[in-house]
Design a protein that fits this description.
Blueprint lengths: L19 E4 L3 E5 L4 H4 L1 H19 L8 E6 L2 H8 L5 E4 L4 E5 L9 H8 L8 H12 L8 H10 L12 H5 L6 H19 L1 H10 L6 H12 L2 H11 L1
This protein binds zinc ion.
Zinc ion binds next to helix 4 and helix 5.
Length: about 240
C-alpha cells in the first residue's frame, strides 16, 4: 500500500536481536522464532520469488542488484514498536524494504509491495496509478474476490468520485480509509481495463507521464493525449464492469 505517508517511521527493527533470517535468490526474509512467519517461511519464499519473476517479466525491467528485505511482525503492537506503524504492509522505496503484519489470519504476501519496489525503473507515478499497477499485478482484491465485484458494488453505493478527480496525487491519499478494498479494487480494475484495452506500452507511457507535482488538469491532458477524452474512457470502463 502506499496509503499513508509514514511520519512515525522508525528503525528500531534494526536493533531487534530476535530476528531469524532466510535468504533466497532475490530476498532476505526476517521473522520471529515461533511466529506464523517462521511456520510459513518456505511458502513465503515460493510465493515472493514467483511474484518477483512475474513482475520483472511483465514490466520488462532489469532485476535490481539489491535483494528486497522483508520484515514479518507477529502482531500490531510489535510492528508499531519496531517500525512505527500498525498498517498491514508498507514498502520503503529508499531502503528496498517491506514491512508486513503477518499472522494466522493476515498474510499480505504476493505482488503488491514488490511491484512498488520493482517498478522504480518506470519512475514514480501518482498514487492512483502506482496502486493500480500494484493491484493489477496481484489480479484480485486481497480477500481473493475479484476487483470488479467490489467496483460494481462501489458504484452502486456511490463511493467513487469521477475518475479524473484522481488525477492529482493527493486525491488517492484522501480516499476513505475505512473502505480500502473498494478503492484498491477501483484502481486495480481501471488499470486492468486500460492495459487490456490498449496494451502495456501505452499504460507505461501514461504511468511515466502522470506527475505528482502538477495540477489535475495537466495530468488529465497527459491522459487524454494517450487515451482520448477521459469521460468517454470512464463511460466505457463502467460499461465493461
Ligand atoms: Zn501499495
Amino acid at each position: 500500500m502506499e496509503k499513508q505517508h509514514l511520519p512515525t517511521y522508525k528503525h528500531d527493527f534494526l536493533n531487534e536481536k530476535k530476528w531469524l533470517t532466510k535468504e533466497s535468490e532475490h530476498y532476505v526474509f526476517h521473522y520471529f522464532p515461533n511466529s506464523q512467519g517462521e511456520t510459513d517461511i518456505d511458502m513465503i519464499v515460493r510465493t515472493q520469488e514467483a511474484a518477483y519473476s512475474k513482475i520483472i517479466a511483465f514490466m520488462e525491467v532489469e532485476p535490481p542488484t539489491k535483494k528486497i528485505q522483508y520484515y514479518f511482525y507477529p502482531d500490531e503492537a510489535t510492528k508499531t514498536s519496531l517500525m512505527g506503524d500498525d498498517w498491514y504492509a508498507q514498502s520503503i522505496r529508499d531502503e528496498f524494504t517491506v514491512h508486513v503484519l503477518y499472522t494466522k489470519e493476515i498474510k499480505p504476501l504476493g505482488e503488491h509491495e514488490d511491484t512498488h519496489l520493482l517498478s522504480l525503473p518506470w519512475g514514480i507515478s501518482i498514487g492512483f496509478f502506482q496502486e493500480g499497477l500494484a493491484e493489477f499485478m496481484v489480479g484480485h482484491a486481497w480477500d481473493g474476490k475479484s476487483h470488479i465485484s467490489y467496483v460494481k458494488d462501489g458504484y452502486k453505493q456511490n463511493l467513487y468520485p469521477p475518475l479524473p478527480d484522481f488525477f492529482e496525487h493527493e486525491a488517492w491519499l484522501r480516499t476513505d480509509d475505512s473502505k480500502p478494498l473498494y478503492f484498491y479494487s477501483l484502481v486495480g480494475a481501471f488499470t486492468a481495463f486500460l492495459i487490456n484495452k490498449s496494451g502495456k506500452d501505452k499504460f507505461k507511457e501514461l504511468y511515466m507521464k502522470m506527475r505528482r507535482d502538477v495540477s489535475k488538469n495537466k495530468n488529465q491532458k497527459a491522459f487524454e493525449d494517450i487515451y482520448g477524452p477521459v469521460l468517454e474512457i470512464e463511460k466505457k470502463f463502467k460499461a465493461s464492469l
